[in-house]
Amino acid sequence: MKITLKTFANLKDVIGQKEITIELAPKVVLSDLFDHLFKEYGNDFDRQVKDQLTKELVPFLILVNDKTYRSISDMDKPINDGDVVTIMIPFDGG
User: Residue 74 class from Cβ within 10 Å (0-12 exposed, 13-18 middle, 19+ buried)?
Assistant: First the structure.
């Protein structure tokens, strides 16, 4: 199955573009997508979404077709062919 991944700020820099198409096995959940991204983008991706001391996911929002999920509690939510997944990590700026 194919999904569209949208990213912003530092994650966009890690992935190299604002939007990409990713092919995944059928019947996956959000954690499967993140496993794919960890394998594909390595430490650069890991540093953006995990606390580097505890290796736990930091709090951020994930949108699947505009429905909001949380990185800490909703990684077991299914994603389907054609879904648009947006990762929204807070960042400092000014």
Answer: middle
- pTM beyond 0.85: the answer is yes
Token pair recorded at residue 32: 């499967």
Q: Which two tokens stand for residue 22?
A: 């990713």
Residue 59 is given by DSSP the state P
CATH superfamily of 2-88: Beta-grasp domain (3.10.20.30)
d(CA 7, CA 37): 12
Residues in the chain: 94
Query: Each residue of 39-64: pLDDT tens digit?
Result: 999 999 999 999 999 999 999 999 99
Rg (CA), the chain: 12
